[in-house]
UniProtKB/TrEMBL annotation:
GO terms for biological process: phosphorelay signal transduction system. It comes from the Bacteria. PANTHER family: HYBRID SIGNAL TRANSDUCTION HISTIDINE KINASE J (PTHR45339). The keyword Phosphoprotein applies. Keywords: Phosphoprotein, Two-component regulatory system. Gene3D superfamilies: 3.40.50.2300. Pfam families: Response_reg. InterPro entries: CheY-like_superfamily, Sig_transdc_resp-reg_receiver. The modification 4-aspartylphosphate is found at D90. This is Response regulator. PROSITE patterns: RESPONSE_REGULATORY. It comes from Geovibrio thiophilus. Residues 41-152 form the Response regulatory domain.
Length: 153
């Protein structure tokens, strides 16, 4: 079992005379995983400016290297110009849809995790075999964070 992340546990690991070398090693690995997880670059594509601002700010709190695009074409340009660890995209966007964005990303890269956000369940059914995670609007931020964390596990 991994130690939980809190100042109490840090104190216990540093000060407890009964701490085993294995427990200390587990704690160090846990801290490394936390640091690596937050060092990921997320590409977030959303055309609705209000949703974009809210979720973009939310994602960037945990993942400071978050790139934000308002349409699929801009998102694809950002994807091609940066090392992106995960993509979060809407499906219905101007200029280039999320469907087209996913297709073009998969032509270049089959392993980058993609999380789709959409209000349209019928549209999302077209992605059943695309190897993406689908979240329905309104987005539950806890579910979004779980999906991102699972993508990096």
């Amino acid at each position: 079992m991994s130690p939980s992340f809190s100042s109490k546990n840090i104190w216990e690991v540093k000060s407890a005379s009964t701490t085993t070398p294995k427990a200390v090693q587990e704690w160090k690995l846990h801290l490394v995983r936390i640091l690596q997880m937050n060092n990921k670059t997320i590409l977030y594509a959303e055309d609705d400016i209000i949703i974009q601002k809210i979720l973009g700010k939310f994602i960037s709190k945990k993942y400071p290297d978050t790139l934000i695009a308002s349409n699929g074409r801009d998102a694809l340009s950002l994807f091609e110009a940066n090392k992106v660890d995960a993509v979060v995209t809407d499906l219905s966007m101007p200029v280039m849809s999320g469907f087209e964005l996913i297709r073009k990303i998969r032509e270049q890269n089959t392993v980058t995790p993609i999380i789709v956000t959409t209000a349209y369940r019928d549209e999302a059914k077209q992605l059943d075999d695309a190897g993406v995670t689908i979240l329905y609007k309104p987005i539950d931020t806890k579910e979004l964070m779980k999906s991102l964390e699972a993508a990096f596990a």
